[in-house]
Amino acid sequence: MEIRVQSVKFDAGQKLLDFVDKKLAKLPKFHDGITSVEVTMSLLPEHDNKNVKVHVRIPGNDLVIERNAKTFEDAIVDCVDILKDKLVRAKEKMTN
Hints:
Elements: E1 2-8, H1 14-24, E2 36-43, E3 50-58, E4 61-69, H2 72-95
Parallel strand pairs: 1-2
Antiparallel strand pairs: 2-3, 3-4
Helix pairs in contact: 1-2
């Protein structure tokens, strides 16, 4: 599984990139057909100004989750939690 991270309007530090890799590396446990994951992190003018968009590519279906939070780490954790459920449901649909 290939993971690509893009940061918009800022340079993501190595610590943040490692955190993203660590969290997303768990996703294949929930669906073994994941081909790639694209993460876009950007800054917004609002109060919860950290935006994370995660695009997971699986055959026949792409999942896109977007979350805002006070930190990029919180937004990533929220996205991964939602993706776990969606990946399990997508896998169940494939097997039925």
